[in-house]
Design goal:
Blueprint lengths: L5 H29 L15 H16 L3 H13 L3 H29 L6
Helix pairs in contact: 1-2, 1-4, 2-4, 3-4
Length: 119
């Protein structure tokens, strides 16, 4: 496996953040156009508020930025079971970077939507 650079970690984080932000904005626009419910009203509809959509997309953004769930987990498994801890550490850093990007996008959307931090 190639050496890991800070630029690649930032790239993975930004891809994950872009998936969360883009998907949330597209879902929010769909709710605005097609669902006749005020945006701040809580509902049990499949299309929720912007922070709710961002919360649902965090995991998808994390794994899509890594190229799919199985690839990242297979590399992690082969690194651990093959006692190649450099490969395992690289995969853990990539997963952590992707999750950090997705979570920062989620926090930013919650802040922009005016949701309190603890709820």
């Amino acid at each position: 496996m190639a050496r890991l650079s800070l630029g690649h970690l930032m790239y993975v984080a930004c891809v994950a953040a872009g998936i969360v932000v883009g998907g949330s904005l597209a879902g929010g626009l769909a709710r605005l156009l097609f669902v006749q419910v005020p945006l701040d009203a809580p509902s049990s509809l499949p299309v929720g508020s912007l922070p709710d959509l961002a919360s649902r997309l965090k995991l998808w953004g994390t794994f899509a930025a890594l190229g799919g769930t199985l690839t990242a987990l297979q590399h992690l498994e082969s690194g651990i079971l093959g006692r190649s801890f450099g490969v395992a550490a690289t995969q853990l850093l990539l997963i952590l970077s992707a999750f950090t990007g997705a979570h920062l996008a989620y926090v930013a959307l919650r802040y922009l939507a005016g949701s309190p931090p603890g709820s």
